[in-house]
Write a structure and sequence with these properties.
4-stranded antiparallel beta sheet; Ribosomal_uS13-like_H2TH; N-terminal domain of MutM-like DNA repair proteins; alpha+beta; 291 residues; 8 helices; H2TH_FPG; Helicase, Ruva Protein, domain 3; multifunctional enzyme; single chain; DNA repair; globular
Length: 291
């Protein structure tokens, strides 16, 4: 799933190309991806792109209607979605149900992009909105962890009293926006913290360490993504991972073997030596979790 650093990479890429261009096409190929009907998606055609920004994992393309008002094309790539950029948008006809393309958008210089989604479980979401806060997922977002106003004390306030495992807290978009399965693994590895540590039980020193690990991990990942075209962002993400997606490989910090815990539709990765005092966490599919 694309998370904050990759989404920011997409935003930076689009922000360097789209402002000032006019939308010439907005075609839905998978009607299930379109989550709004008012305003209609085709209301974006003939509007001019003003800016591109990010809200958590949502991309927001703001356009001006010419009447002192704006419209927003907002999308969330979900687990298997991605953006495919074209300097010259293909003229081929999109056949609904016969392609992974969910949305095609074109611009006045001939460029454009497709939003695609792999697999059979379709979760990619597209919205046309007068205000990004009209999108339910954005309206519910917690603070962005790289917002200058989000400091160590803000994190401590979010964690206080939560009898929830810290892995789940980091992934909950209503608590902290933008972090998902991959970067929560990376942050907890950098903090040398068990994914099953309860948020409410973290000491002041633990919170200091976690905050620093969060800031550094995300900032480094965004720096890695910066300037890369969409086609290169996924590989850059994989190369930057120390434990996530590296089951059976060697931990780059201590040399122990990276282990996994599997759930219904995903897994987490961790280093026993760095994070759990050498204890192995039980596979959720087979037995109860070891604390």
């Amino acid at each position: 799933m694309p998370e904050m650093p990759e989404v920011q990479g997409l935003v930076d890429f689009l922000a360097g190309r789209l402002p000032g261009l006019t939308v010439t096409r907005a075609t839905v190929a998978n009607i299930a991806a379109l989550k709004t009907y008012d305003p209609p998606l085709d209301a974006l055609v003939r509007t001019q792109v003003v800016s591109v920004s990010r809200h958590g994992k949502f991309v927001d393309i703001e356009t001006a209607t010419g009447a002192a008002s704006s419209l927003h094309l907002v999308f969330h790539l979900a687990k298997a979605g991605w953006l495919r950029w074209y300097d010259q948008l293909p003229s081929t006809i999109i056949r609904p149900g016969k392609t992974p393309i969910a949305l095609r958008v074109g611009f006045s210089d001939g460029s454009g992009f497709d939003l695609t989604e792999a697999g059979t479980k379709k979760s990619l979401a597209v919205y046309a909105a007068r205000n990004p806060t009209d999108v339910p997922g954005i309206e519910r977002l917690g603070p962005d962890p790289l917002d200058p106003r989000f400091d160590r004390d803000a994190l401590a306030a979010l964690l206080a009293g939560r009898r929830t495992q810290i892995k789940g807290v980091l992934r909950d978009q209503s608590i902290i926006a933008g972090i998902g399965n991959a970067y929560s693994d990376e942050i907890l590895h950098a903090a040398r913290m068990s994914p099953y540590a309860l948020a409410a039980n973290l000491t002041d020193a633990d919170i200091d360490t976690l905050f620093t690990a969060m800031q550094q991990t995300l900032a480094e990942a965004i720096a890695t993504a910066s300037g890369k075209p969409p086609a290169d962002l996924k590989d850059a993400k994989r190369r930057g991972m120390r434990v996530h997606g590296r089951r059976g490989e060697v931990c780059p910090v201590c040399g122990d073997e990276v282990r996994s815990v599997f759930f219904a539709d995903n897994s987490l990765e961790y280093c026993p030596t760095c994070q759990t005092g050498g204890k192995l966490l039980a596979d959720r599919r087979l037995s109860r979790l070891l604390k």
